[in-house]
Amino acid sequence: MIDSWPTSARLWDRAKSSLPGGVSTGMRASMRPHPLFFRGGRGPVLTDVDGNDYLDYVLGWGPVVLGHGHPGLTEAVTRRLPDGATFGAGHELEYLAAEAVLDALPGMERVLWSNTGSEADQIALRLARAATGRNRFVKMTGHYHGWSDAFLLGYRPDADGRLDRAGTRGQNPAALSDVSLAPWGDLDAVGTILRDPAQDVAALFVEPVLCNSGVIAPPDGYLAGLRSLCDETGTLLVFDEVITGFRVARGGAAELYGVQPDLIVLAKALAGGYPVAAVAGRAAVLDQSLHGVVHAGTYNGNPIVLAAVKATVEALSEPGIYPAFETNGRRLADGMRAALERYDVTAAVNQVGPVVQVLPGLDRCDTFTQFLAGDQQWYDVLTVEMLRRGLFTLPGGRWYLSTAHSQADVDTTVDAFADSVSATVGTNGLPRGTLQDVG
């Protein structure tokens, strides 16, 4: 049992003198009990600066799909390093990595390299506008397409419970005039917007699995319905597969659900933890970059990250990878459900492949509205109890599995999860099953 993290606390205090909040991205500041510092990892295990080992379900907030220090990935990147970091010119890995990506995504004809999911979503929107001659776009409430001014709307309610306002201070409110919000799962609402000529919609952006807000699978026929509506109205359908791409299936959610979009945005699982993103799509759309659409980026397609892309995609092409992901994901989710039931805790557990979501306080979670009603205060306390027992997990309840996690790791995790639930609901004299802040 881990009681405290003194070295991490000391380093965090030092970091706060040079980094805002002592973190490199604001979301890490929400880690409980405070941000931890790590010195390295192997496979599914991370070791912090205090010498504690954890089974890692954060996985760099998703990208470390092969586990830490994967030999093939490490060797591919190491082999490239002596030849330089970037050239500002062409090299063979640009097309070799692109060919590997396209081989996994039937119907996609081109790949455009970028650096982050936020950047890739922005260029996808620009290409869609150029290809259609229209300006506006549609996104779903609860869906996340990066932190740019254009897209950060409808992801989380503001202090007044409103979803139709800027998602951050400092955001240009004028940028929000180009987007229409639709509720996830409601085809009629989307159809009303797309069929309105005054809406002038170039593209519909959607997470095909709502991973950012509950790991909610699409309702039956929903994605196919979106495809039909886009075909009817000449709107481009964009799957934001930053999370699902190369994770829920080799061909991502497009393969899993059998619906082909016009563009697919990829990032997290694409390079095993190295910083890269991409837009894959039809040639007629991506080739707009040859006809007046500006797409720039000094680091786009650099050989280091594309060596990582090629190695990661090849590793994920090995037989048995995705059946094992499904088996382990289901094993983890079922074990969590059993533990929660054992201690009379009301919580939903959603799972799609190797992505799992725990949703305390809910009997089920099929909608974004239900997701917002979850008891996050209770889960924050649970997160610390799991950390004490050697599980490194994300705030908010989402879990990622890597290819390095074994069934034995999952079983160990389920036992530690059950112990953590028991400790959490049994403190401060509260009756078991009471979901409130027990910290």
Structure overview:
The chain has 13 helices and 14 strands. The chain has 439 residues and is α/β, with parallel strands linked by helices. It folds into two domains: 167 residues, Aspartate Aminotransferase, domain 1 (Alpha-Beta Complex), CATH 3.90.1150.10; 245 residues, 3-Layer(aba) Sandwich (Aspartate Aminotransferase, domain 2), CATH 3.40.640.10. A seven-stranded mixed beta sheet has the order 4-10-9-8-7-5-6, with helices on both faces. It has a four-stranded mixed beta sheet with strand order 1-2-3-13. A three-stranded antiparallel beta sheet has the order 11-12-14. The radius of gyration is 22 Å and the shape is globular. The C terminus is likely disordered.
List its salient traits:
439 residues, disordered C terminus, Aspartate Aminotransferase, domain 2, four-stranded mixed β-sheet, 2 domains, globular, Aspartate Aminotransferase, domain 1, alpha/beta, 13 helices
Summarize the entry for a quick read.
This protein is α/β, with parallel strands linked by helices. It contains 13 helices and 14 strands. The protein has two domains: 167 residues, Aspartate Aminotransferase, domain 1 (Alpha-Beta Complex); 245 residues, Type I PLP-dependent aspartate aminotransferase-like (Major domain) (Aspartate Aminotransferase, domain 2, 3-Layer(aba) Sandwich), CATH 3.40.640.10.
